[in-house]
Amino acid sequence: MTVFESKTLINKSVSEVYQFLEDLNNHQVLMPENIYNWSSTKDEARFTIQNMAKLALKVESRVPNQKITIIPAEEAPIALNLQWDLLEINNQTQATLTISAELNMMMKMLASGPLQKLTDFQVNALQNKLG
Question: Entry's InterPro entries (predicted)?
Answer without folding.
Answer: START-like_dom_sf (IPR023393)
